[in-house]
Specification:
By secondary structure, this protein is an alpha+beta fold. About 45% of the residues lie in helices and about 15% in strands. One of its GO terms (molecular function) is DNA binding.
């Protein structure tokens, strides 16, 4: 993964984690001793953020928590191992840095900061997200579970993660992906699944949760903001187990992508219109329905218009009534019962 440990600092601080500047040394040391520092302290030393020695506190984004010296040492040595054939000079530098971090590691650290740093990590920026995903991909040996919201998958989205998928396939890792029903109509996704063969199993639902990626049921990635430029890397066993349970329950409800969608049982009503009808019955606006089903607002309104025409509704209010009458509101109703009369209780022979 691309984790700038040496020789990739900012323009004002052209150094790596193996040879911090004096100001960076002071701020990082203080962060290790105290467990965290205000974000303003890192202003004069952007190298600490650039080198990922400090990262946002998941509970308070105005504070920064340090990457543990032990983790820094591990990544330093990994980088040295990869480059040792190209430059023997870097080995001595890394060894010196290792000893420096080891000295910091012997200092007492708040338990909460250590536990939090390993359990929840804020990834700020697409480059850091991609680097963390690449690292998790390299470590994965068994299974990847993903939830992919939205509609038809764009070629750029599929190409972005193709190198990871191919690497996983090469190691025999199994993958299970959840999409919305709309994604079935994208040729790009069909081409991707054909390329991956039996390695990937895909299923679809009317709507799914926000993006989720799980590696080997030990590490999970979820979005941390609406535009997905920040993410959370989760390694806390309880959190990961919870997300795995959510995925497995959705998976049991989903329909294999290779199987046709079930018939609605109502002439003229498609499966997608049935889904829209259920969400309309819940009181959702067009834009919300479109987002949840992974379609455009324009397409959503076209389906609503066709639904109104099929059910003979002249207004939205009347459409709501007709949806309930047709049983499209998603509510389970008890089977009708009929009171037994005296003749009803008689045997068939008596009748």
């Amino acid at each position: 993964m691309e984790w700038a440990m040496a020789g990739h600092g900012t323009e004002e601080h052209p150094h790596g984690a193996d040879r911090l500047c004096e100001a960076g040394d002071r701020v990082y040391s203080r962060a290790v001793r105290r467990g965290r520092v205000p974000r303003t302290d890192a202003g004069p030393v952007p190298c600490l953020l650039e080198l990922a020695l400090l990262h946002p506190d998941p509970d308070d984004m105005d504070w920064l928590v340090p990457t543990s010296p032990q983790e820094v040492m591990t990544r330093l040595l990994r980088g040295v191992h990869d480059e040792v054939s190209a430059s023997q000079r870097r080995v001595g530098s890394a060894v010196a840095a290792f000893e420096w971090y080891a000295g910091l590691g012997r200092q007492p650290q708040p338990l909460t900061a250590s536990a939090e740093g390993s359990a929840i990590r804020v990834l700020d920026g697409l480059s850091r997200i991609q680097a963390a995903m690449d690292e998790a991909t390299e470590a994965c040996t068994t299974e990847v579970l993903t939830v992919q919201p939205g509609g038809i998958r764009r070629e750029a989205e599929l190409t972005e993660g193709l190198h990871r998928a191919l690497a996983l396939r090469g190691r025999g890792v199994r993958m299970r992906d959840l999409y919305t029903h709309v994604a079935r109509h994208g040729q790009g996704l069909l081409n991707y699944l054909e390329l991956m063969g039996d390695t990937v199993e895909a299923r679809t639902l009317d709507e799914v949760i926000d993006r989720l990626i799980l590696f080997d049921r030990t590490v999970a990635f979820i979005p941390a903001n609406t535009d997905r430029t920040m993410a959370l890397e989760l390694r806390h066993p309880a959190l990961v187990e919870y997300l795995v349970t959510v995925f497995e329950r959705l998976w049991r409800l989903a329909i294999p992508l290779t199987a046709p969608l079930p018939d609605t049982g109502i002439e003229g009503i498609s499966h997608r219109e049935q889904s829209i009808a259920a969400l309309l019955a819940e009181g959702h606006q067009d834009a919300v329905i479109a987002e949840r089903l992974g379609i455009s607002v324009r397409t959503c309104r076209a389906h609503i218009a066709r639904l109104s025409e099929t059910l003979g509704a002249a207004s939205r209010t009347q459409l709501g009534v007709r949806i309930a009458q047709a049983g499209l509101d998603g509510l389970r109703r008890p089977a009708p019962t009929t009171a037994l009369t005296g003749s009803d209780r008689e045997s068939p022979r008596a009748r």
